[in-house]
């Protein structure tokens, strides 16, 4: 089973492109399967050799690790968001409910964008992607 139809992929691509146009600090934003395969990618670094593929795999692993940590710590909720502040870069991962499948929305942005602002952009984008996937 293919995770996305061509129409869904095109609609999601437009949304990610719009997201990058609204926030030029976003270097890379992608939607990946939970097992680490990139589906749709946008941003100024989307053409950086193997970066999108590697970032999709990293995002998937980080989401799985964070979800497992939450379970071990006694959380009864599923993972929603992971935030990393790397000093010069900000990384936000957000789970996206596609109905029959879960996805990971992964974003890398320059640190000059505020964490609150970036979190809102990623959250709003995830909600729009969820609508498009259902």
Provide a quick synopsis of the model.
With 134 residues, the protein is an alpha+beta fold. 43% of the residues lie in helices and 27% in strands. The model has no long low-confidence stretch (mean pLDDT 90).
Q: Portion of residues in helices?
A: 40-55%
Given the structure, what is the number of helices? 3
The shape, in one word, is globular
Mean model confidence by pLDDT: 90
| Pattern of helices and strands | HEEHEEEH
The largest sheet is: 5 strands, antiparallel
Stretches where pLDDT falls below 50 for ≥5 residues? none
Cα-atom radius of gyration? 14 Å
- What is the total tally of β strands? 5
Give the N-to-C terminal Cα separation. 15 Å
The secondary structure category is alpha+beta
Share of residues in strands: 25-35%
* Strand neighbour order, sheet with most strands: 2-1-5-4-3
Describe this structure in words.
The protein is α+β, with helices and mostly antiparallel strands and about 130 residues long. Helices cover about 45% and strands about 25% of the residues. Strands 2-1-5-4-3 form a five-stranded antiparallel sheet, sandwiched between helices. α1 packs antiparallel against α3. The protein starts with 5 loop residues before the first helix and ends with a helix.
